[in-house]
Amino acid sequence: MKRCLDDVYPDAHCELDFTTPLELLVAVVLSAQTTDVRVNLVTPALFKRYRTAADYAGADRAELEEHLRSTGFYRAKANSVMGLGAALVERFGGEVPDKLEDLVTLPGVGRKTANVVLGNAFDVPGITVDTHFGRLVRRWGWTAEEDPVKVEHAVGELIPRKEWTMLSHRVIFHGRRVCHAKKPACGACPLAKDCPSYGTGPTGFDEAAKLVKGVEKDHILALAAPR
């Protein structure tokens, strides 16, 4: 299944736009309860206005909230981002740390956020257990664990460490494009022959093909089409 994911999504990547570790850290915090697409609409102006941890720490709250309003829960997110900036300035010289144990001490940063930052900003392998990842690995029978930390460790024992970051991207891509929560595109899924949950969604190719999303749709369907 892992090799198949490699073939289906060779170019999988973090779908949040960023150029620095700080930008990625802020973007991941903002992505809670909203989509990466929405965050990417907000961050260009945000990153232009706030370039350093000190900028976030000293932000005018009302102005910052206005920047974040469309992401939802903008007051809480403004609190998180300002607290994040202050903690980085006070404890890490304004720089984003590159160790899991340091990242998880920051306000609003759990293991999921830390692993995204480590894997994509610092090339440190990490497994990102978001809702898609947890749902799919349970659906596939890779683990029965519900707790994200236990899921992370269970999958980490199955897959070589150097593959963790790309595996995370590919599983999340598959969850967004094919293996939907309520109606997965089983009949148009390249992983179908190995999936213990095959049949959860429609198994006819034509019906399932309509459920496949993303710019990779033609590539996915070509791999999954009946031979």
Mean pLDDT: 97
- Approximate helicity band: 40-55%
The CATH architecture category of the largest domain equals Orthogonal Bundle
By CATH reckoning, the class of the largest domain would read Mainly Alpha
What portion of residues belong to β-strands? under 5%
Care to count the β-strands?
0
Envelope shape: elongated
Give the total of domains: 2
Series of H and E elements: HHHHHHHHHHHHH
Structural class call reads mainly alpha
How far apart, in Å, are the first and last alpha carbons?
A: 19 Å
Number of helices: 13
CATH homology superfamily of the largest domain: Hypothetical protein, domain 2
Main sheet summary: none
* Annotated CATH topology of the largest domain: Endonuclease III, domain 1
- Which parts are unreliable, with pLDDT below 50 for 5 consecutive residues or more? none
Rg, nearest Å: 19 Å
Pfam family, one: HHH
Domain HhH-GPD: 30-177
Protein name: Endonuclease III
Cofactor: [4Fe-4S] cluster
Question: How does this model look, in words?
Answer:
The protein has two domains: 102 residues, Hypothetical protein, domain 2 (Endonuclease III, domain 1, Orthogonal Bundle); 96 residues, Orthogonal Bundle (Endonuclease Iii, domain 2), CATH 1.10.1670.10. 54% of the residues lie in helices and 0% in strands. It contains 13 helices and no strands. Helix 5 crosses helix 6. The two termini are 19 Å apart.
